[in-house]
């Protein structure tokens, strides 16, 4: 045994391996350190008992660092669930047979035209103007009809004078006939002249009335309150009788017009209730009822024109607005197994390939599931989901591009729930 405590001969050049358990090192600590540092060279561990104890303390500290590092790595491998903005969706309460695009139109639209021909000398309204009943909207040159009216008035005056003279002559002849001063034949001639004068006077009166009407017809008047929706003639243009100058959409009842495909025709009838939303009025919902359904399909589009009366349409509803018409299925509300619709914000929409999808938080384990859905309608801020969801399921409303399927999450309510009302 040499000075270093090893049994190897001193001529060996490689260092001997150090083994704890000699002076100054407890047995349990020695066994632990032998297992940890048994392969280290002896020259690094030889020395006095004090130096050996110092080296043991350093080794224990190094071992503690390794153990603590392993603990931290084990804790980091189990991250906490990611918080996501989600809430339970609620069905709209009604099932829909179809959702179709439509347009707001006036129930009655009539052309405004002159009843006589002539040259337009004035137009008093323009496209989009609102008019009231009896308002003058255009004027023809009245020169010719004014002359006709003046001539007819003169003829009426002459006929009136002839009638007065014939009446006076008749009174004289009747008095003379009672005295047998004239023959009966002369009295009959006087009576015939009076009857002719009376007829001529009546004819002249009718001609004068017609001439006055023609004069009035030179002024175009709105026959109903409404809005000017089209202009077909301009100032200085010669128009014929009945040629349209304006188109007037009547105020009052408002219709929503849509074209129904054959696949949805069987589910509709006159009196059917529908829900209408307007793109220009987000968040507003109107009730409409089918009042007219075309009996035949359009020759080109092969669709049936449906007209619905929009109930309680205020002044904010303008003609020409685009609409989405959702026809409510008869008896659908409250029935189990019926496909109901859900209104979600557009921020909740994701995709599964080419199909629309949403992230659903599973009940019990709060794990995310990417589920395909059927979108019935796309609005500016919301979508209407008609299939793929159940009432009460939790749907992620924000951050849909930052989560993955199977991820465990912690659902939190939105900061402003009114912005995500379903």
UniProtKB/TrEMBL annotation:
Superkingdom, taxonomy of origin: Bacteria
GO molecular function, one term: efflux transmembrane transporter activity
Residue stretches in coiled coil: 187-214
Stored SUPFAM superfamilies: HlyD-like secretion proteins
Annotated TM spans: none
Keyword annotations from UniProtKB, A to Z: Coiled coil
GO cellular component: efflux pump complex
Residue span, CusB-like beta-barrel domain: 256-328
Keyword DNA-binding: no
Limits of the Multidrug resistance protein MdtA-like barrel-sandwich hybrid domain: 115-244
Stated family: Belongs to the membrane fusion protein (MFP) (TC 8.A.1) family.
Protein name, entry field: RND family efflux transporter MFP subunit
Organism: Paraburkholderia rhizosphaerae
């Amino acid at each position: 045994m040499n000075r270093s405590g090893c049994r190897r001969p001193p001529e060996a050049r490689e260092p001997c391996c150090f083994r704890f358990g000699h002076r100054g090192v407890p047995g349990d600590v020695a066994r632990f350190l032998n297992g940890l540092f048994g392969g280290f060279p002896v020259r690094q561990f030889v020395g006095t008992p004090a130096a050996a104890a110092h080296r043991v303390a350093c080794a224990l500290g190094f071992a503690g660092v390794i153990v603590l590092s392993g603990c931290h790595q084990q804790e980091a491998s189990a991250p906490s669930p990611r918080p996501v903005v989600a809430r339970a969706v609620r069905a709209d309460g009604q099932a829909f047979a179809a959702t179709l695009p439509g347009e707001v139109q006036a129930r009655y639209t009539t052309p405004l035209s002159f009843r006589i021909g002539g040259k337009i000398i004035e137009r008093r309204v323009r496209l989009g103007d609102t008019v009231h009943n009896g308002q003058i909207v255009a004027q023809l040159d009245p020169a010719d009809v004014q002359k006709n009216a003046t001539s007819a008035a003169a003829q009426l005056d002459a006929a009136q004078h002839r009638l007065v003279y014939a009446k006076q002559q008749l009174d004289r002849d009747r008095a003379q006939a009672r005295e047998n001063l004239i023959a009966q034949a002369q009295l009959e001639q006087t009576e015939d002249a009076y009857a002719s004068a009376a007829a001529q006077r009546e004819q002249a009166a009718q001609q004068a009335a017609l001439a006055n009407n023609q004069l009035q017809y030179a002024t175009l008047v709105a026959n109903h309150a409404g809005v000017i929706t089209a202009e077909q003639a301009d100032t200085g243009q010669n128009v014929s009788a009945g040629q349209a100058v304006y188109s007037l959409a009547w105020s009052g009842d408002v219709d929503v017009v849509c074209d129904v495909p054959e696949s949805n025709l069987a589910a509709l009838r006159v009196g059917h209730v529908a829900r209408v939303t307007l793109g220009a009025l987000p968040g507003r919902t109107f009730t409409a009822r089918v009042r007219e359904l075309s009996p035949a399909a359009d020759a080109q589009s092969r669709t049936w024109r449906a007209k619905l009366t929009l109930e309680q349409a205020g002044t904010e509803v303008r003609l020409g607005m685009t609409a989405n018409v959702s026809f409510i299925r008869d008896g659908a509300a409250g029935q189990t197994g019926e496909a109901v619709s859900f209104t979600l914000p557009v921020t909740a929409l994701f995709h599964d390939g080419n199909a629309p999808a949403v992230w659903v938080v599973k009940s019990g384990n709060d794990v995310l599931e990417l589920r395909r859905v059927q979108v019935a309608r796309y609005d500016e801020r919301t979508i209407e989901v008609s299939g793929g969801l159940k009432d009460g399921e939790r749907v992620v409303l924000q951050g849909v591009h930052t989560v993955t399927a199977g991820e465990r999450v912690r659902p939190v309510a939105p900061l402003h729930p009114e912005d995500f009302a379903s």
